[in-house]
Amino acid sequence: MRSTRAKGLGLRARPKLFALGFQLLALVSFLAAGACSSPPPAELSSSVFTPAHRTTGEAARDFFAIRPTAVQPIPFPHKTHLEKKAVCADCHESAEKGPIAGIPSVKTCMICHSQIATDKPLIKQVTGYSEKGIEIPWQRVYGFTREAHVRFNHAPHIRASVDCATCHGDLAKQTVAERVVDHSMGFCVNCHRQKSASNDCLTCHF
Amino acid sequence: MDRRNFIKLTAITGTSATLAGCGNPEHQLIRFVPDDDVVPGVAEWKPSVCPMCAAGCGVNVRVMEADVETTRNGQAGVVKMAVAKKLEGNAKDPISQGGLCARGQASIQVTYHPDRLMHPMKRTGARGTGAFKEISWDEAIVELTGQLDALAASGDQKSLAFLTRPHRGRRTALAGEFLKGFGAAAPIGYELFADEVLRRANGISFGHEQLPTIDFARSRFAISFGADFLGTWNSPVAQSVSYAAMRQGRPGVRGAFVQVESRMSLTGASADEWVPVKPGTEGVLALGLAHLILANKLRPADAGRAGAAIDGWSSGLPDYTPARVAQLTGVTAKQIERLARTLAEQQPAVAFIAGPPLAQTNGLFHALAVNALNVLLGAVERPGGTGFVAGSMKSEVRSLKSDTLASAKVLLLDGGNPVFDAPKAWKVRESLAAIPFIASFGSFIDDTSAHADLILPDHSYLESWVDSAPESGSMAAVPTSAGPVMKPLYQTRATADVLIEVAGKLKTPVALPWKTAEEVAKSTATASPQITAASPKSAAKYAEPVFDGEATQYPFHFLPYASLQFGDGSSAHLPWLQEMPDPLTSAMWSSWVEINPQTAERLRLAQGDLVDVTSSQGTLRAPVMIFPGIAPDMVAMPVGQGHETFTRYASGRGANPIAILAPATESETGALAWAATRVKITRAGDGDGRLIMFGGEMREHPHEHETR
After folding, report:
1. How far is CA B138 from CA B121, B145, B456, B505, in A?
2. How many Å apart are CA B636 and CA A190, to the nearest integer?
3. B188 by DSSP, 3-state: which?
4. Are B73 and B483 in contact (CB under 8 A)?
5. Separation CA A61–CA A28 (nearest Å)
6. B26 to chain A: nearest residue by CA?
7. Residue B245 DSSP label
8. Domains of chain B (ranges plus CATH)?
């Protein structure tokens, strides 16, 4: 008797839920679109501390783990540099030293480009940034969201002779770096299994 | 596909389509090219010295990369920089030995405080209103140099005054050299809890005008007269480490510890036995113990010179019989006899004194009495006793008195906040108003620097060269200097560099032995001048302590004590310390008046009720804290709150007990007797929520000690 009534209630509630779902969806899309069309806040920090997301759009993106495709200010040709026998760590020098490979400073570019190919239009753009003392606003291609609680460290992977291309794709075939390898947990765990590296939760998560 | 999956799918595809072009706002910040290369994600540990008190604990600073907001060529942006993230005690430092107190931990907030002064400023509004405008360093230096040149032109060099805290190492030495070269008197050193009386007594008894270092680690019995050595006095971290070794560091031996005081401090709470005495009679108890040891021949009487400073010593202190001592101090004769026996039996034993007993009008007597007891116990310059570190540096400073600032025409402020922590009767505020030009080097606007005309903000200690040569804390001298651990965040300059620059730019330049702040910090400490042991005019004799206010009108002794969080109030602007619960009461973010439960019951006061505390000097209002560890005829308040102006966290918070303090002085040394005021208490109303406590009520066990 009791279960029948509950079932009946559930049946009646469903269309309502369905409608509610669409309303929510519409709301989220509307808010997200609103947040997007207005320019992002110029101030770097708010006087009020809040752990919450600054915009609804940001919250929605985080929730669904959606990350925008990186659009680079200068179409950096990895291919060209690798053809000239440069290696990854020449520019991403922190990869061997610490957890984060790092995006090289414009200072690193100028080590060579103060002399080499100075007349090319893209290099002139680079020189322009350097002269203004401003970093090229490169956008990050890879990386985990903060919510993933992943602690990744490049150095031990390089010590274990994992090729850069294993996780970042063959850059010799790419011009601008693209996210060609999906850094899902499955991807990491598979490799750890094959190489008998630890699969303990705390190896990667904190 | 069922409905649920359909909803999920549309939600994902819909929002992702909407959001794909958004980009993260942080990608649109301008990033400036950094000055140096930092490996991201890798911590470096760099040494420095904690500046929060004179103890001079060595710290290790965790330095990592961070994005720092900055402005370059009028453009706002961020730059990657190596900045300090965390402080820990330096295990290789003989003072801190790897430990760091709460104030030291919180000192990192000095650098990142939102109200830190970022650039030089000139006053625009009326004095004390805090209206300033930004100026350049060039303008600021010209302004200061101009004021000093004007003094020199009128032949009035003596009217330059420099206010600082005493015992600040080579920084005080630099100020001293600057003033000497300019033709002015030595810097004025002011600190509320300054231990001047103890230094003088040690000069008289032992020829060392400095604070003692106590070798707890090798002692079996310690008796402290009012010294809060685990909380606020002298070198708390070093003393805590040493004390821990005395209690638990030797297998089978647990050193005993007795605390004599009238209000239970954090140290008293840690003692095996807590002996409450009447305020201003601590030295009497010490001599009572000495009398018993001498009379019963418990120890050979080889007290020598330290004993000679005490009246009646050579004849065995006949005036200090247990009966009389019991009558004066309120400690029972039986307890005195037991303590004397334990002191003589447990060797090595050590006695020491600091804090409230020395802040009575007869403070020097108490210190001399304890020194004499120590000699009788054989505890001076011996393992398990007290000793004096050789070669500690000392720079000459004048002490602040009510008339010190009267003749000043130009005043330079470099630490010390007398508007807040000097008695109102000294009229510091009025003196400041009469000084034509005041410049401040501090990193914050506080009660005193709010009166400044020119602000020349110093680097934070993490951004500059630092040095220390503490006079106590370790058995050997520990002169330390350390370089900056990070680059300056703002348009600030090291005060040493500013003084050196101004010295060179004066019309009649002042020659200084240093060229940069780095040289000042690295210069070797000059040995302290040898003190010729000055004997007191006559042998010290117990004189009744004199309290301000008649006992009939003002029935309570008033004890303003150094707070564990704020010391004398100089760290009240750090929010970590504001929100740190007081260890004995669990109160935070507020002021309170500690009252004995019996007294509170008699006056019909409940926890949190508001009371007016009135002395001959004025009235303050604060909530009641029922506190069983205080004598029934005494009320106590922590010092540190009640700032008028001291950043967003401390301004207008709580009440300042110093504001109602009488200007009583210790009769021999002239030091401020900050525990010699009497007050009355009147109920002002029900609690209004201004007493903020972390935990529940105090648990009281009034019958606990009755079995003794």
Report:
1. 12, 11, 11, 12
2. 66
3. strand
4. no
5. 11
6. A44
7. H
8. 28-112 (2.20.25.90), 126-192+397-522 (3.40.50.740), 196-387 (3.40.228.10), 556-685 (2.40.40.20)
In the three-class reduction of DSSP (H, G, I as helix; E, B as strand; rest coil), residue B617 is classed as coil
Strands (E), B564-633: 593-595, 610-615, 618-626
Which ipTM value was assigned to this complex? 0.70
Best to test chain B binding among A132, A144, A146 (most B CBs inside 10 Å): A132
The single residue listed with the structure tokens 């730059």 is B79
Distance from C-alpha of B607 to C-alpha of B42, rounded to nearest angstrom: 50
Alpha helices in B622-671 (DSSP H): 647-650
Element (H, E) at B287: helix B282-295
Q: Decide: B517 and B464 in contact? Cβ < 8 Å.
A: yes
Chain B residues 28-57 within an 8 A CB cutoff of chain A: 28-34, 37, 39-42
Averaged over successive runs of 10 residues, the pLDDT of chain B (708 residues) comes to: 56 44 54 87 94 93 92 88 96 94 96 96 89 96 96 94 88 93 94 93 90 95 97 95 96 95 96 96 96 83 68 87 96 96 92 96 95 91 91 76 88 94 94 95 95 96 93 88 94 96 95 92 64 61 93 96 95 95 93 96 95 97 95 96 95 96 93 96 92 71 47
Low pLDDT (below 70) residues in chain A:
1-52, 65
**Encoding tokens for residue B674?**
């900050």
CB-based contacts of A118, cutoff 8 Å, min separation 6: A124, A127
As a whole number of angstroms, the distance between CA A25 and CA B592 comes to 54
Give the pair of three-digit tokens for residue A36. 């997007």
**In DSSP terms, which residues pair with B615 in a beta bridge?**
B618
With CB atoms and an 8 Å threshold, state whether A99 touches B25.
no
B74 Cβ under 8 Å from any chain A Cβ = no
- Output helix, strand, coil percentages for chain B, rounded to the nearest 5: 30, 20, 50
Residue B223 phi/psi, 5° resolution?
Answer: -125, 125
Largest CA distance in chain B: 106
B654 neighbors B648 (Cβ within 8 angstroms): no
Among chain B residues, the shortest Cα distance to A131 is held by B33
Based on DSSP, count helices (H) and strands (E) in chain A, helices before strands: 10, 0
In the structure encoding, which two tokens stand for residue B602, read together? Answer: 């008699």
pLDDT per residue over A150-172, tens digit each? 989 998 899 899 999 999 998 88
Tell how far CA B559 is from the center of its chain: 16
Contact B292, B322 (CB under 8 A): yes
Helix or strand holding residue B337 (H, E): helix B333-345
Sign of the C-alpha dihedral computed for residues B188, B189, B193 and B196 taken in this order: negative
Strand B221-225 with B437-440, pairing:
unpaired
Give the C-alpha separation, A114 to A116, whole Å: 6
Query: Which residues does chain B have within 8 Å of residue A57's beta carbon, measured at their own beta carbons?
Result: 18-19, 22
- Residues A177, A171: contact at Cβ < 8 Å? yes
CB B454 within 8 A of CB B477: no
Per DSSP (E only), the strands in B368-447 are 386-387, 398-399, 410-414, 437-440
A57 Cβ under 8 Å from any chain B Cβ: yes
**Token digits of residue B173:** 């030495």
